[in-house]
Amino acid sequence: MATSLILSRRDLDFLLHEWLDVESLTKRSRFTEHSRETFDAVLDLAEQIATDHFAPHNRTADENEPHMVDGKAVLIPEVSKALKVFTDAGLIAGSFDEEYGGMQLPHTVGQAVFAWFKAANVGTSAYPFLTMGNARLLLAHGSQEQIDTFVRPELEGRWFGTMALSEPQAGSSLADITTRAVPQDDGTYRLTGNKMWISGGDHELTENIVHLVLAKIPGGPPGVKGISLFIVPKFLVNDDGSLGERNDVVLAGLNHKMGYRGTTNTLLNFGEGVHTPGGRAGAVGYLVGEQHRGLTYMFHMMNEARIGVGVGATVLGYTGYLHALEYARTRTQGRPPAGKDPASPMVPIIEHTDVRRMLLAAKSYVEGGMALGLYCARLVDEEQTAETQEERSRAHLLLDMLTPIAKAWPSQWGLAANDLAIQVHGGYGYTRDYPVEQFYRDNRLNPIHEGTQGVQSLDLLGRKVVMQGGAGLALLGETIAATTARAAGSEWAGFAADLDAAVARMGAVTATLWGTGEPDLALANSHVYLEAAGHIVVAWLWLEQALACEGAASDFHEGKRQAARYFWRWELPRVNHRFGLLESLDRTVLDTPSHVL
Amino acid sequence: MATSLILSRRDLDFLLHEWLDVESLTKRSRFTEHSRETFDAVLDLAEQIATDHFAPHNRTADENEPHMVDGKAVLIPEVSKALKVFTDAGLIAGSFDEEYGGMQLPHTVGQAVFAWFKAANVGTSAYPFLTMGNARLLLAHGSQEQIDTFVRPELEGRWFGTMALSEPQAGSSLADITTRAVPQDDGTYRLTGNKMWISGGDHELTENIVHLVLAKIPGGPPGVKGISLFIVPKFLVNDDGSLGERNDVVLAGLNHKMGYRGTTNTLLNFGEGVHTPGGRAGAVGYLVGEQHRGLTYMFHMMNEARIGVGVGATVLGYTGYLHALEYARTRTQGRPPAGKDPASPMVPIIEHTDVRRMLLAAKSYVEGGMALGLYCARLVDEEQTAETQEERSRAHLLLDMLTPIAKAWPSQWGLAANDLAIQVHGGYGYTRDYPVEQFYRDNRLNPIHEGTQGVQSLDLLGRKVVMQGGAGLALLGETIAATTARAAGSEWAGFAADLDAAVARMGAVTATLWGTGEPDLALANSHVYLEAAGHIVVAWLWLEQALACEGAASDFHEGKRQAARYFWRWELPRVNHRFGLLESLDRTVLDTPSHVL
């Protein structure tokens, strides 16, 4: 295959093999059927299907967004065709158990595989992405009957799934959802309410849709403690697995978005009496796990979803970077400062230093983000398959700590890479004849959904760094210190020293903030904290990558080293201003009364 | 009128009167007919027309972009209607001489007036914006006959104008344009070539279009020294001013953009033989001024255009901010950290500190940008009407120095305000049901056209700070020092001290960079220099605004002070990292070979 503009297989191979050594996972019992060859084969397959079936209709789907006809969401036919190829290849079950028809791939490889589809066409790939998260939640918390009934068809690609949390009046504030689930004598529930922003909430791609719905059972505790989780299928399922009656879940509207248009984003009405399954009112729902524990279950899925969203944000930035790189190599314009003779030929714009600045910055963001996403995926593998309980617990703790960063950092900097990709293209990048403006628009969703940047910052500073007496933060510090120790005596010692200093300062800042005894003050500038922490983590992963290049002299490795130098010299120092602000316990924002704005 | 979401009249009044004291201009002979009352009246008129005729079709124009039918660009009818109201009100000639039907308003007021239209509907307002720049250039460099023939109809709103610089193979690199202009025996020229990215290049809004076209006369010097400027009207003009033959300027295509869709953006073919005026080949053109001086003339217009683009970028950010503020005051969601009881009512999201952070940041960007734009407009008034030659020269020099910043800073930070406005809206901001995503898309053009950010950075560091032995930089430093001196002993003394330090460091950094003797090295990180310089300038203008609030205790003034504090504590320190990088003469980007990317 020619060098792809979707993703860099060379970089994935570097990250998976030269750095994360995923082949070593094949020694673990879960992955003994696998080898470098099987990993390569599935990555080849992903690239091929993404290239042949996903990328070609990315712009078409943007220009022809889903619309409602007779209460149904109508999509361009390319979406269905692409997803059939995807599911026929078994990719939807890639990292699931063989028992459920899966390939039992390591998550690390699974993330790399799925990254091709997100980068090629984020709108189309959202349907299986949501389904995989849905299935994973049910495998963890559903009954065997629920798994057999709903998960199997999902992993066969016959049904797709959603997660239905938000409501029109309650976006980030799940405490305020009002969808009600009333218990019935037969153990089922009847749901009534409205859900907003439900991606994949309706379509004709599959014969059934499995909604996972948050709702409150009357009489339960107030707020988030009274939230339960229900399976609400679009069509009820007969005992033999065939489809039964239409459930009372109705498409009430489609949201029209800036980007990400290929994915239906819906307002769904539950139990409004359009259908009356069994002749009675309310949408039929099946409780998952125990009552009132719905949010805990959902966050199990949300955390994986957040890492997945982070990878999505990274790869949209990544494909933008690759397109900009290709453009900058081929588009000629102007001459360097030292050679202004108009009789001399124009040079490719990559020869202009400021264009290389943009490309190098974008490279550092997207390859840094990819390292972050795959590192987190590796932690998922560790938490599930590491040999000792201690290793599994450590992986779990570190992953918990990194999750808000893995979601938020790429959402900010992958998007920044998309912005740079437009800028590299100049006027052409602003036209719809080139794909980079769509990548930007598609990616602009990522800082919003699955918890906004602000929500992630509160999660990091308000929960993750203080959980277990600060154990997560300490573990992150130890993990980074192990890397910087390896840099001693190398050309990267200066980078390591700067990183050590930044980590130490982060610890001190954290203590200062929480030492105030005032949560409002400690959390007032949480977004600044998130940004600083994110840059430290990605700087660490760039140091990791630089060290993994030891002794390798190819252009590829020199590019890695140059991006690592860039991140060290240009990006890591950004944390100083942020920490200075945090150390000062700046009250500017906190003390701004809303009426003076 | 209710409080507008287009712009803040209160802020404009503050900037124009409490700060810039534009009323004092009425003592000058050019403005004796004016008074606070006439300024107020025209601002009232602008707000009313912008509100009633421009804003209502902003989304409609975005959704129904111009398309070609039978070689003509077809626009929605609202554009023509709005522009008729605008030109009938005499606003196109607002700051032009009474001799040409103008109101002879100060430029400062004229910028504030026109800001309403850009903020309400940047696509529609581009047509008169381009026409005003075109007319101003011809008034400065055209012959009296050219002025009578072309400028008068423009200022009556009967004809519109364009500026046609770029070509498909030559965007930023004007040295490489290939459009040819061959002299004819009658003193006219015949032009052949293709021009790309020509905004307003074709439409049916006016009966004629006056193109100002850069082209090369065969046998002239190579590169930019051989560029001449021509008037090429769409229709030739008879001696009595009536329209004659169709000239050979043909709409070859429309560009389809990410935003700014209401403005036709065209590929124009000149002299391809579609029409043959006078039975001969080539588009008829009239030389403006002297041969080979075209770029100098064009830059006269470009500099004003750049300030205007900066104001446009600011006000798109500004209207986004106002919409976000309104949304944040009315949308309820969640509870503050100290009051998580789900039984308590939800609060307006403006009560969440992180939402106020976004609003305060956006406020500091857009009000800072507006101060910058109006300050530059005030310098135009000074350079044209100040009493002494010395004052006029100083104003000219300072304006020259500030122009790249006035263009680039709002293009970056006005856009950042638009990004924040989307984020404040959450999922709703990502939908096309709310206007903030369009404001973002519209504004994304501004860092590209009229000289990209990279081009501005080379202009600032490569030309402006070194011109006249560094006189421009010195004058900027003196001007800022005069402000900081006024802050002595006030609560703003700390801000002033930080600003003085930053200015001193900028001087030292500039000397370090040019002390290398290597232009490639000095200019390698010019974009970083531009960003630092921009933040210093805007910090200075925030200090100016804070000082102008002295003794005023209203919510409005407290908001100004709070935004000034924000810019001081949160934004100004960003320059330290940038200067550190520049001082180190960092070669990371310069030394990155293109083949390792």
TrEMBL record, chains A, B:
Its cofactor is FAD. It comes from Blastococcus colisei. The keyword Metal-binding does not apply. This is Butyryl-CoA dehydrogenase. InterPro entries: Acyl-CoA_dh-like_C_dom (IPR025878), Acyl-CoA_Oxase/DH_mid-dom (IPR006091), Acyl-CoA_Oxase/DH_mid-dom_sf (IPR046373), AcylCo_DH-like_C (IPR036250), AcylCo_DH/oxidase_C (IPR009075), AcylCoA_DH/ox_N (IPR013786), AcylCoA_DH/ox_N_sf (IPR037069), AcylCoA_DH/oxidase_NM_dom_sf (IPR009100). It comes from the Bacteria. Residues 163-266 form the Acyl-CoA oxidase/dehydrogenase middle domain. Belongs to the acyl-CoA dehydrogenase family. Residues 478-592 form the Acetyl-CoA dehydrogenase-like C-terminal domain. Keywords: FAD, Flavoprotein, Oxidoreductase. Residues 40-155 form the Acyl-CoA dehydrogenase/oxidase N-terminal domain. Residues 293-458 form the Acyl-CoA dehydrogenase/oxidase C-terminal domain. It holds the Pfam family Acyl-CoA_dh_1. GO terms for molecular function: flavin adenine dinucleotide binding; oxidoreductase activity, acting on the CH-CH group of donors.
